[in-house]
Amino acid sequence: MRVAPQLLSDAGLGAVPDDVLSATVLSRLECPRDVARLASSSKRFNSLAGCENLWRSLYCARWGEPGELTRRAATIAGGYRRLYGSKDVTEKAAAPWTKPCPEELRASVEKLATRLVGDEQQVNVVFLVDGSGSVNAEEFESMLGFCVDASSQLAESVPQLQVAVVQFSNDVRVEVGLAPLELEALRKTTREMVRMNGGTNVAVALTKAGQLLKRDAAPDAMRHVVLLTDGRVDSYQAHEARQVADQLADEQRHVSLFAYGVGRGVDRAELLHIIGGPPTCAHVPASHPHYHLHHNLHAAGQPPQPPQPPQPPAPAAPPAQGQQPAPSVQAPAAAAPVGGADAAAASASAAATTAAALTAGFSVCLSAFAEAPEERYLALCTRDDAPW
């Protein structure tokens, strides 16, 4: 809908309520340029044109429904109007590449600074940099630049920060061991790094990250593995990488796996598959009635279980005249040892119950915060082309 700004004036708008103007004029505008023109027509429209709901709607129309990361980016930017402008400028400057705007990048890196056990909890970040043949020199540099920029941002808010950089291809090479961050040394190392070339073995990279974290991270530290790659691996390699990720989640606590897409023809679906796994520490707010039980079990080394609110039994309907009452079915408090077919059935039942509990309580994902994989993925520097 086009509105002629010269026909609108403050004199004719005084008696019209704000909600009516928004519903009849602003809500029909589909182009930010029209909103800007309308805002310049009068002080009243200039005020109404800054409405968050309007700009959120315009954002959704162009980039889709915002997730948690986008909502945080909007807060950092100071609202959807500013976030829209920032993304628009970034998109035009980066074309034909896709890159996140500064607010999105900051919101994503903020997750790496989150701690579950107090502000003094150690945070460990292992950057896994793809040095395979499908990544060219420019893309490789963008990954290394991100490692430095993210580490610098983290250092501002994390007192106990340890960082490692591992380059991977068919094999792995530890460029920076897991140790307290020395930013200048990190910059020097990344400037001098040489691409390995070869294939893309994500599994061996995740294995090395697990070894570094197990050896050099504090027992109760946060453990973040940041995978920077184009994700172009065959199905067998992806399956192997997912198995290694699940093993890492099983062996260590407070693990989150992040993926940043870099390169031409990034396989986003494969990356989401690799970083999606069972939670390593389902986060329970301290205000939750099950928090203390959860925390005590976790401290004792037992795998955390999602809280399950008690379900009151449904009242049984009285049996019809002449019918026998149906036997009540209750889950046993503890299953007795069984064998053969009974054991298989009991195992399947237990697995189904656990899966249902996880689904009911938390997102099923490899994350200390129980976040969906989509919230831990970001297109850092991508282009819809065939690999280089």
TrEMBL record:
Pfam families: F-box-like (PF12937), VWA (PF00092)
Domain VWFA: 124-284
Superkingdom to which the source organism belongs: Eukaryota
Compositionally biased region (Pro residues): 303-318
The protein's name in its UniProt record: VWFA domain-containing protein
Region (Disordered): 296-334
Composition skew (Low complexity), residue ranges: 319-334
InterPro entries: ECM_Assembly_Org (IPR050525), F-box-like_dom_sf (IPR036047), F-box_dom (IPR001810), VWF_A (IPR002035), vWFA_dom_sf (IPR036465)
Record-linked CDD domains: vWFA_subfamily_ECM
PROSITE patterns: VWFA
